[in-house]
Amino acid sequence: MANELRPCPCDIGDRFDYGGRGQEVQIEHIRAYVSKPSASTDKAVIVIHDIFGWQLPNTRYMADMLTANGYIAICPDFFVGQEGWKPSNDWASFDDWLKTRQASKIDKEVDVVLKYLKEQCGAKEIGAIGFCWGGAAVQHLMLKNPHLKTGVSLYGVIRFFDNGSNLLHPTFFIFAENDDFIPLEQVTDLEQKLKQNCKVDYEVKIYPGQTHGFVHRKKENINPQDKPYIEEGRKDMINWLNKYM
Hints:
Elements: E1 23-27, E2 30-35, E3 43-48, H1 57-68, E4 72-76, H2 94-98, H3 107-120, E5 125-131, H4 133-144, E6 151-154, E7 171-176, H5 184-197, E8 202-207, H6 214-217, H7 227-244
Parallel strand pairs: 3-4, 3-5, 5-6, 6-7, 7-8
Antiparallel strand pairs: 1-2, 2-4
């Protein structure tokens, strides 16, 4: 582990001042943020939040970006009412905190969300994207859930990943070159396992000079040197979804 004092790579980064264009809804036992395009569509994307939870403005910004590209986007509270991590929390308590918020334990909630998207939103093709903790959740879903079309895992923490590399659906993995908490050796190992075992399309891409969270937690105007890579990561994410949905 790269940093024993900081077992998860997330910090709040550049938090967007963003309100969102969607609305919050209650779906059975789950709260969720839902954003819909003006034109009707049967394509939807589940947006899986990072450790800071479903109400982080940055994540809602990404959901609305998907909506601007023609997708129904939904960001459920996969912590199911439990608090997201706070920057003021003691990192020494992180592993205990994580025990009740495992990225591989979201299947019940995903089933509820899939039912809602199909029955209430008319969705027929559904994908998933996720950030950090949510990136690991996407990897889990791509291995286990037959009802999804594709996924994008953005800097999913590899130590949170399920064992296995025989993905069911085309999956795009976005990583940052200078991610202190996802060593490039782990990314190389993931690529080797995918090459040996994966029978569907996949891509692993490393973005030069970037750090953890660059796609959804950096403001381009604050980090002008990173702007091209932020934009590239976002375009790559959209293009992948467009290709397989």
